[in-house]
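Intended use. Records like the one below are meant for learning the mapping from a protein sequence to its folded structure. Do not use them to infer anything beyond what is encoded.
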Amino acid sequence: MAPVQRQAIHAALEQALDAGAAVLERGGAALDAVQAAVVALEEAPWFNAGYGAVYTARGEHELDAALMEGAVMDHSPHVLLAGQGAERFADTQPAIARVDNAWFDTPSRLAQLHRAQEEAREGASAAGRYFGTVGAVALDRQGHLAAATSTGGMTNKRWGRVGDSPLIGAGTWADQRVAVSATGWGEAFIRCAAAHDIAARVAHGGASLGEAAEAVVFGTLPALGGDGGVIAVDAQGRLALPFNTGGMYRGWIDRDGRRGTAIFDA
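Structure written out for the chain above:
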């Protein structure tokens, strides 16, 4: 990774931390904080979400996102919306900005699509595994937890493919004990309900958040051939950010106000 790109990623992570922290510092809700942080990440071209999302096999963008609680629960009785129904719902919401699909285009993601398609023609890969899903978790002053996750999915994915990010319990989870957001190969996270598994280990297995997150990331997921990681926080403000890949973009502000950003192990 070029030094300029690394600096830009760290700067984008800091901006997202600032956006979320600003909400919490004025006594705002955890849900609003994670939304603010994720929106900041979606607007940066370095991540696979919003502007800069990867391409589908058809050369378009299909985006997935979830809040454990969110607008769909405030303005609709339904928990999950997809496809044309989601588009029509968005049309009825004045606060949701609409843009042309081409707004999400970036040259680097187009180059990734071409590489993935060439690999597929050679039989090396059916869909390029270019991650970069963004997410945020937060604990507010009232003790409420929230999680949000947003992604463009997998490069060269087939039309209609849905990953783990918008699926509650797979890539996103929040309850009164923990909040979890995941990134990685979505199919494995779906098969083991990874985010909920972490929560269940804390609630019913007596595990700490760190123990639960590491058990899933280093045990359950690899057993299914899955790679990726999670960010998580519990009701006491303890953080867990394990990943089983070479790196994971991440930033944090802990309960004592200490903050940081990282890409690789160091």
